[in-house]
Amino acid sequence: MRFETLSVFPQVFAPYLDESIMGRAQRRGIFEFCAYDLRDWTHDRHRTVDDAPFGGGQGMLMKPAPIFEAVRAISAMHEERPHVVFFSPCGERYDESAARRLAAMDRVLLVCGRYEGMDERAYELADETLSLGDYVLTGGELAALVVIDSVVRLLPGALGDEKSAEDESFSDGLLEYAQYTRPANFEGLEVPPVLLSGDHAAVRAWRRRSSVERTALWRPDLLEGAELTEEERAWAREAAKGPLGEGEAEKAD
Ligand code: SAH
Question: Which of 71, 178, 189, 198 is the most buried (most CB within 10 A)?
């Protein structure tokens, strides 16, 4: 898969994408990355990408011309046209299902705004516009990194362990179950005994219940879209009544 970004701060991506799992995935050829500098498509001495908004108001807007020229030029650089993503707080909310959709694509161009945003006509170039959430960032670069990171970890081989992306929050529409590592007793805080039992079926059942209960408690909105049995719906109703506590282990018996 090939990711490209278009922004006025092309140098901010590499420090993150060259490290750790993203760095390894690039070296293994699981994804390619290229950051383009929007100023390369300006024609004045100051390489101007912004201008004052018509109608007045604070701040500066990104001019349409460099964005149109850049997206057209970048699109023509490879045989396959990229899927073009813009970012804006007004966009559609980015989530794991959007990540899965993008992970099936071969080439994605992420166009990052700055300042007060972009001239509205630039969005003509977008195949889709995404928002990370209901808050305002100073630029789209962080949004692009979030998208790249969350998509790359879904690509086969990126995590090393093929299973790990399958068994996580949102992979089945629910939050992930509670997890523990050594020691089994930390300052009196005990790990649920079933996890130490070596009984794989019991562990699976406990984890499923933990997933359902945590989702009911923390993200009840997700339950509507989840496939639950009658018994699981009953667990969810019970959990919705109060915080999860020590009872969690016993309840799964
Ligand atoms: N004036 C705009 C915000 C511009 S912020 C408004 O009120 O809607 C500048 C840039 O940061 C945007 O063009 C976009 O690329 C990025 N950005 C800001 N908030 C974002 C969010 N919640 N999700 C994704 N990108 C965001």
Answer: 71
